[in-house]
Design brief:
Blueprint (H helix, E strand, L loop, with lengths): L1 H29 L5 H18 L4 H11 L1 H16 L14 H12 L1 H15 L1
């Protein structure tokens, strides 16, 4: 009987040690420093924006983030969503609805022509 009691005490102490080791490993894995998460968030923002607006030219959205900033661009994207929710825009010939990216660039062109030109010039440099 005495030996069984010793075994259970040893097993209990071993399981406590394993739990402590797991907790230590979790703590070291969760520690992250530096600006890396901000870059991932901006990348995710650009990719999500392109998917939402069905914009194939992601480099233009990257340029827009560089010129306007994330907050200004997200405000315009919300405006595009509102326009699309109300029925969207037709193209100049009236044959089809404009994609979200086209609406975005149209709004940007009317509001801030200099920023629009800068974004498109950088985009043409990338295309060539």
């Amino acid at each position: 009987m005495g030996s069984r009691g010793d075994v259970t005490i040893n097993q209990a102490s071993n399981t406590n040690k394993k739990k402590k080791n797991k907790n230590k490993k979790k703590k070291t894995k969760s520690k992250k420093t530096g600006p890396a998460p901000a870059i991932k968030n901006m990348n995710k923002f650009v990719i999500d924006t392109c998917k939402r607006l069905k914009e194939r030219k992601t480099y233009l959205v990257w340029n827009a983030v560089g010129v306007l900033g994330v907050s200004a661009l997200s405000d315009i994207v919300n405006e595009v969503d509102a326009i699309q929710a109300c029925g969207g825009q037709m193209t100049a010939d009236g044959k089809r609805h404009r994609y979200g990216g086209g609406i975005l660039w149209g709004i940007l062109k009317k509001r801030d022509p200099n920023a629009y030109k800068e974004i498109m010039v950088k985009g043409k440099e990338i295309e060539v």
